[in-house]
Amino acid sequence: MIDLLAAMFSYAFFVTVVRASTPLLFATLGGLISDLSGALNVALEGMMLIAALTAVVVSVYAPWYVAVGAAVLIGSLFGGVIAFFHLKLKADIILAGFAINILAAGGTVFALSIATGGDKGTSINLASKAIPALDLSFLSAIPVIGGVLSGMLSGHSLLSWLAVLSVAVLWFFLYHMPQGLWLRAVGEYPASPQAAGIAVDKVRVWALVASGAFAGLGGAQLAMFNYIGFTRDMTAGRGFIALGAVLLGARHPVGAMLAALLFGVFEALSIVMPGIFAWIPAELVVSIPFLVTVFALFLFSYRAMRARRQAEAKSA
User: Fold this and answer.
1) Does any domain span residue 58?
2) 118, burial (CB in 10 Å: exposed 0-12, middle 13-18, buried 19+)
3) Predicted model pTM
4) Staple 58 to which of 28, 67, 122, 227, CB 3.0 to 4.6 Å?
């Protein structure tokens, strides 16, 4: 236990938590935007997977920032696809989302085999690039706290800093801009903004496109920093965990960030614990984030049911 606590309070563990949380936070923010618009994006998993492969392939031939942009673009494109099927063709959004997930699972393997000349497991034969980390080692010159700041803040991906900035920007957008009010109103009671002349479907289209863009950033972080390269099914359920993080975070940007960090802690523990407690099965440790997701969904359902009962009691 002492060894575990020592590992958890180390700089390395903090860096691992941030690294694990970043792709999840991007996906969670994407899920939050779509959920607030009333069009839940269950295709986050597939969008992240497609974006991860896109980023890796593009980075072979272009600078890393172009590859990240390509990942964002492909994520936005699939956000538009799910919006087209759901809002234009009136398909069920859950079924459309799962169709994209299934397409991503098989399609990325096929595309990977073409890009690598036959390898269907990893992109090890591709010389892909990495997203640079921000070096803040100069902070160590600050008296007293410089060493702590340098150890905690240095070495993180540029996208990790972008993720934190995105939380602040999204919070400001949702609660201090009229467009954010429109987005929340469309999700809560679409008849009201529609009566005010707001195009409900247009708001939902842009919400799904933005959701896909955030998922694309998560895929790029995963394939160009957390791991350098693409591996089959490398998202490993992170898109579905992000949906649980949206609910656990009370559908708020700051809550989403805290929920993503919580899941990042458990993912980091799944990396650290097998080396300390060898008698614990590795499969059990890896399943911790998914167990937390199920528990989060249970808490949300219980809270929603209790709120509904209280509302019914007041109306009676």
Assistant:
1) yes
2) exposed
3) 0.89
4) 67
